[in-house]
Amino acid sequence: MQTLIKSVDEQSVESAKKILLDGGVIGMPTETVYGLAGVGTMPEAVKKIFEIKGRPSDNPLIAHVHKHYDLDKLVLVKHDYVYKLIEKFTPGPLTLVFESKRVVCDEATCGGDTLAVRIPSHQGCQQLLQAVDMPVVAPSANLSKHTSPVTAEHVYNDLNGKIPLILDGGKCTGGIESTVLDVTGEIPRILRAGLVTKEMIEEVVGKCLIAEHKEGDRVKSPGVKYKHYRPNCKTALFEEKELDLVKKAYQEEIDCGGKPFVMCADHVGEKLKGVNLLLLGDTPEKIASNLYDKLLEGERKATLIIAVAMPDEKGVNMGIMNRLRKSCG
Ligand code: AMP
Ligand code: MG
Which of these, 61, 33, 56, lies nearest to 46 by C-alpha position? Predict the structure, then answer.
């Protein structure tokens, strides 16, 4: 199969819509990462998504809908605080987990009672979702375990020959996957950290919990238990206060004939003179938006990526560290 990359416009959205309504699967831009999209009410389309990615069959998919879509068709909204969250954070990088009305097929929810729903803010994505006017399920458009794609080219590199079309909506501005928030209980609970932070949610609804994943627990959000986001080269992760270890690992890799790169915030890079760098930027938002792009640049250039951790786990840093540990830890 030939894989075409087309910029988002009326014509390409029309082609994408046709493929989706015929039960096909395409690459779709969003503001977080690129998605591998299929119509969520079509079991055959959903099966294709799992097959193409090699995704574990117990890891459910997020349903994406446009901003005028009636959520009541898909899910039961049990608590009033949810409306405040929808008002404040959607469209945007917040996924809400509701009790499902099972309109989206069991293949997508892995037979569970709940459905994760997101309303993306990316304009091209909205255009497509409005044209299709159905829930579109989409995990990240990479092979399972590999780093998530933030450009159409990244999608092409992983899925060339496996899908007919990638809609090119430019580089994703968010850069890490959405925050996943369970809103089935009295108090919302973060299942996966992202750009909408615990602090931001608490400002709107007062209290927000963070799900703890303990050994032996029934996993509430299966995706968080898997290895993820791995670039195709060796990786290491150090704290900022361990720069002597960073330099040691760097030198050892050179001594073995390798080509190491240090991936870090700009201010850390300033302390590492004469070293190959993958600079992430200097604010948490900037660092999140560059993270996967730099990991994918790193796997092309480096034999070893040495990542330097964020100074804390506050705000957006929580989501960044969650990705860094899985990709480089
Ligand atoms: P991905 O699309 O690869 O970014 O992953 C989607 C994330 O949302 C994974 O961590 C899933 O486990 C999680 N997720 C999707 N649906 C549900 C659901 N119904 N309940 C809890 N977590 C979900
Ligand atoms: Mg993913």
Answer: 61
pLDDT at 12 over 60: yes
Site to probe by mutation for ligand 1, drawn from 110, 181, 192, 229 as the one with most ligand atoms within 8 Å of Cβ, is: 192
Nearest CA to ligand 1 atom 3: 139
Mean pLDDT, rounded, for 104-127: 98
pLDDT digits (tens, 9 = 90+) for 215-232: 445 455 655 555 689 999
* pTM beyond 0.90, yes or no: yes
